[in-house]
């Protein structure tokens, strides 16, 4: 639901400038520094193979490489180093277990992440951080949990913002994220400054305040020209708000020169289709890349949805994937896609039962609600429910899906 945010202390009155034209995405220098870090710590580790501190430093450098380039093998290399620290080291394993759990979250291996954080919890050290990570994993697994808000800090504020957004209260989400952003700037924590500003920009986009969103994204890229996610959001705004798909595709292509991110192919597929190009070319490239064993479970949901919109044999494979995913985490988002899988394979009764049991009035997220609409679009008694939850979601869903909503709901 969209609300009007009247003032932002960091905006000027004449902020309606073309930030996109002046934005610069240039990860090259940061990638070079990171490559030197990897070489340095690899060399140090080769001289002292059992030194846990060197392993941790090298693992962190590999993770930086993944976040810069999308190279999944860097992420799994970091995982192996963290595990080596845990199994071979004699010092406190808490830092390695915390890092391992976050690494596994990134890989969407949430059950293994839960095991790692539970092991860290049993050690009894750094418990504030342990409980925050455990809370994040429980949210991904659909386990009911609550935040300890006795001592409000940036980490708590960020999670409160995410919770408010998930509950459909965008105004409160923005307030929390603005407070978290101010705290990050007060603490001069560059990493959190970038993270909170990018997420606030995304919230502002959802709220329809595109100019503010672009100003914030421009601020992020001025601080960190390697921030591919901020540049991707700008490309999405070019496509979904300014109706300039060619510019958006060009921006995505810039990112893909340095970044191996299968999800960028999906974004390209939608944009290409809007200008009369074949989306299947991009989708097939996505499947060929994302189905490689090295990506594990990371793109199972995206793979399944593509397969479920293809021929019968592909739909059967998509249903099997979603059953497997649902066994790992029975969240409303996963349940919605599983229900869609049932429907696409002729199981409309099973689909309806699952939707009304685990998705209807269980989430405010537009993606699962849109899937529910696709299955239940003939049920006019529920059209008001869908209208109330899917109005003003154009920024998040994009023009193609917004058009589908209009066609289905009238």
Report what the structure shows:
With 410 residues, this protein is mainly α. The chain has a domain at 148-225: Tetratricopeptide repeat domain (Serine Threonine Protein Phosphatase 5, Tetratricopeptide repeat), CATH 1.25.40. It is built from 22 helices and no strands. The protein has helices at 19-22, 28-47, 52-69, 72-88, 94-106, 110-123, 127-141, 154-166, 170-186, 190-206, 210-223, 228-240, 245-256, 262-274, 279-290, 300-308, 312-328, 332-344, 348-358, 366-376, 383-390, 394-409. Helix 5 (94-106) packs antiparallel against helix 6 and helix 14 packs antiparallel against helix 15 (279-290). The longest helix has 20 residues, at 28-47. The chain is globular. The model is unreliable at 1-17 (pLDDT under 50).
Please count the beta strands (DSSP E, at least 2 residues each): 0
| Shape descriptor | globular
What is the name of the CATH architecture of one domain?
A: Alpha Horseshoe
- Termini gap: 19 Å
Q: What share of residues is helical?
A: over 70%
Mean pLDDT, all residues: 93
CATH H level of one domain: which superfamily? Tetratricopeptide repeat domain
Helix tally equals: 22
CATH topology of one domain: Serine Threonine Protein Phosphatase 5, Tetratricopeptide repeat
Judged by helices, strands and strand pairing, the structural class is mainly alpha
The residue ranges in which pLDDT falls below 50 over 5 or more consecutive positions are 1-17
Oligomer: single chain
User: Can you tell me the CATH class of one domain?
Assistant: Mainly Alpha
N-to-C order of helices and strands: HHHHHHHHHHHHHHHHHHHHHH
Beta-sheet strand percentage?
A: under 5%
- Write down the Rg: 22 Å
The main sheet comes to: none
